[in-house]
Design a protein that fits this description.
single chain, alpha+beta, Diaminopimelate Epimerase, Chain A, domain 1, 2 domains, 18-stranded mixed β-sheet, binds 2,6-diaminopimelic acid, EC 5.1.1.7, DAP_epimerase_DapF, diaminopimelate epimerase activity, amino-acid biosynthesis, cytoplasm
């Protein structure tokens, strides 16, 4: 099977165009670090009846996610570079709805991708947490806030990201009963109204170097709470995601998307 390895600020994916009979089983096999290709998830290219193309995201544990911010930047570059989609502005169907990436092409190369991520939702029917106040509740002894940004996200304020217990608290919060669908967990240190640093434990994938929906959702939480302006640089372990929060509530995420290798599985 032909595979293309890509990453968005270190959040890495295996892109597959061929039809896959058992996506969950394939993800659990191929995503294993050292024993196989290694990745945070699979991105499957499929035809769409309502957009230019459809993207499916299969986490490393085999679970299927509704959306993936870093993944959709990689996916948009992939389908454009291969002529599957002929325009740098495109519509990509996901389980969370249609998202609209715009490729920033410089000297014939995709330099970055700006994605209209839609509206991070604090609406009662969307809130991923069973808490009276989704912007301020306690989970596993931590103050937290939650938002739906394609997928469930929880922000845990952290004074020092070097000592934050990401790998200990992350999985506990991910699977806490407060979250019926589980949650991604983002430990965030606010630097100023335009800058935050974050580390992420992802639902279905564990510790990742970056999380696009997480950076977007956490910027939306900080803005909603009056702690951040409407443009925020979210510093993740392997780079920076620029988030813009428009007046109409839509969020735009801009970041890189890189190729690593092309190959054939054995
Ligand atoms: N593991 C996540 C999906 C991928 C999100 C992340 N990689 C991103 O860049 O948005 C979940 O199951 O909710």
């Amino acid at each position: 099977m032909h595979i293309t390895k890509m990453h968005g600020l270190g959040n890495d994916f295996i892109v597959i165009e061929e039809r896959v009979a058992d996506p969950a089983g394939l993800a659990r096999g191929l995503c294993r670090r050292r024993l196989s290709v290694g990745a945070d998830g699979l991105l499957l290219v499929e035809p769409s009846g309502c957009a230019d193309v459809k993207m499916r995201i299969i986490n490393a544990d085999g679970s299927e996610a509704e959306m993936c911010g870093n993944g959709v930047r990689c996916f948009a570059r992939y389908v454009y570079d291969r002529g599957i989609v002929k325009t740098p502005d495109m519509a990509i169907e996901t389980l969370a709805g249609v998202v609209r990436p715009r490729l920033v092409v410089e000297n014939g190369e995709v330099a970055a991708v700006r994605v209209d991520m839609g509206v991070p939702s604090f609406a009662a029917g969307d809130i991923p947490v069973l808490a009276d106040d989704p912007l301020d509740f306690e989970v596993c002894g931590q103050r937290a806030a939650s938002v739906l940004c394609g997928v469930p996200h929880t922000l845990v304020p952290a004074g020092d990201l070097e000592t934050a217990d990401v790998d200990g608290l992350g999985p506990r919060i991910e699977k806490d009963p407060l979250f019926p669908r589980g949650t991604n967990v983002n430990f965030v240190r606010l630097i100023d109204r335009h800058t935050a640093h974050m580390r992420t434990w992802e639902r279905g994938a564990g510790r990742t170097l970056a999380c696009g929906t997480g950076a977007t959702g956490c910027a939306a939480i900080l803005h909603k709470k009056g702690l951040a302006a409407n443009e925020v640089d979210m510093h993740v372990e392997a780079g920076i995601l620029h988030i813009e929060l428009a007046q109409d509530g839509r969020a735009f995420m801009t970041g890189a998307a890189a190729y690593v290798f092309e190959g054939e599985t054995v």
